[in-house]
Amino acid sequence: MATLGIASIRLTRVSIPLTMVHASSMYVIQKTERTVVELLLENGITGLGETWGTPDVYALAQRFGRELIGNDALNRFSFRKIIGKSSYDNRYGRNGLATLAGLDLAAWDATARSLKMSLAELIGGRRRESIDVVSTLPAAILPRAVSRKELTDHLDVLANTQLVVQFALEQQRKSGFRSFKLKSAAYSPEWDWKLLNELREAMPKARIRFDPNANYGAATATELCRRLDPLGLEFFEDPTGELEGIARLKAAVKTPVATNMWVVRDEHLVSAIRRQAVDVVLGDLFMWGGIDAWRRMARVAHAYGMKPALHSVYETGIATVANLHLASALPEVEYPNDSGLHFLSSDVLAEPQVVKDGAMRLPSGPGLGVTIDRAKLEEVTLESAEIRA
Length: 389
Hints:
By secondary structure, the chain is an alpha/beta fold. The protein has two domains: 128 residues, Enolase-like, N-terminal domain (Enolase-like, domain 1), CATH 3.30.390.10; 241 residues, TIM Barrel, CATH 3.20.20. Helix content is 39%, strand content 22%. The protein is built from 14 helices and 13 strands. Strands 4, 5, 6, 7, 8, 9, 10, 11 and 12 form a nine-stranded mixed β-sheet that branches. Helix 10 links the parallel strand 8 and strand 9. The longest helix is centred in the N-terminal third of the chain and has 22 residues. The two termini are 23 Å apart. 51% of the residues are buried.
């Protein structure tokens, strides 16, 4: 087959309002910013990718993109060498891995389109057409983005938990969600205990995840999770900080324990395996640095008795669909995919990606199977750059 030379790369940084306020222990936000990647091959085929939309990542994407012009999209080494062979060589940290992942995804998509294969087939096989997805539940229902003090004042009124329950039931009614992730503010164990009990009572068959983003101390988290054990939650996600703290908590509870914060590199897997620290590695495509790294993590984790699952935040349809392809291609993935696309006020794709009966369908067609809607993209654009030889 002829080489798949990279002719140009177009980067577009976008800002998309959310339809609700995301409140958690880390953020109170009402928008998402992403960088959309359009990678044009010399054969005229364009692949799509995306990554984080911070100014730093957008700037790095321009720098990395200039190094990739003229390279073969099939040459995986030309991508990885940009940030180094190992974490030791990586001078760019998490931003570098996320930037690489966005460019890498576009190269995978362009390659699959050139071969007239779906991305799932190129990764390993199109095994499922429908993937269950998870609806995020904010720590509290707020009319607007507020200060941390305003948030904690709201959480002090325990009757306000019912607003989150009503929100969850509305998502279930609208889209048939069967899986939910509660984002905790990690401020009040009593709020979280009461709210999770009410969610379980309101949705007795739902899969519910609890995610304080590691902001509870180890003793508080362990006590709370012991109290929550009878609810039969799907898993506790990053209930406390550091791998050792999570390992000790895991030994004290029956509910599975997951992380997307403390096992994010190949070398972290060794410690997690030896310490038996977690049950689920909730891997983020961008934190791991792309499809090759994510696929490798999934296979290693599964081989040592841990279950891989796909983490997501508020991504456009591009990354959302990429996660669907990964879940379809890799038999190691059993859990529903995280997804926040349904809370974006708009998307950049021409094809609506809908949640029906709690699941999303894999698009047909080569590559990701989706296309950019130029008008929609322009409406949410903050800035753009074209990189050529």
